[in-house]
Amino acid sequence: MKITHWLSLASLAGVVLWLAGGLTFAGPPAPAPQPAAPRSAGAVKLAYVDFQQVLDTSVVGKKAQDELKKKFGSTQDLLKQKGQELQDLQTQLEKQKDVLSTIALEEKKNLFAAKYKSYMQQKMMLQEQYNNEFIKLVKPMQKEISDIIVAIGKEKGYTMIFKYDVSAQTEDSELAEFLFFPSAIAYFDAGVNITTEVLARYDAKHR
Known about the structure:
mainly alpha; two-stranded parallel ribbon; 56% helix; 4% strand; elongated
């Protein structure tokens, strides 16, 4: 199960302006290394890895997602609830701005400002804690998966192996936020997808 994303602040984008005066994620044994495939002079052999799939479905990736959810899931839900409460309060004040007295409206604005400030302080503090834990869990994956990709590249004579997150194009993933390589492919042949092999070798190291 994917971890719920942090509550987006997009819906609260106009709050500051409003306050200013307006009313806004036992395997098979690792395959034996094979000699590099011969390549004629000047030939180019390309492949890509769906890094997102490895992060989402590998043994280590799933464990990392579970640990993040266990540590931060309940607090994320609480912050999401507080964010919704702020949105509701903002909507309520917008509707009441013409019927409340100047003093009453100012008091409600000040209350909203205090709640919003507290919400942002809690969110920023938790986000920092989350980011530190996230990097601690996911960073080691970078080295291991990169080594596997390099090994496959040398064994099979690839000129270059790209990272192309096909999975990330269709659904959200918590681990997608930590990007290791640039994604720069406009077209690819599905026959050069080595994701399954990378995933099998990576899982084999952790089972």
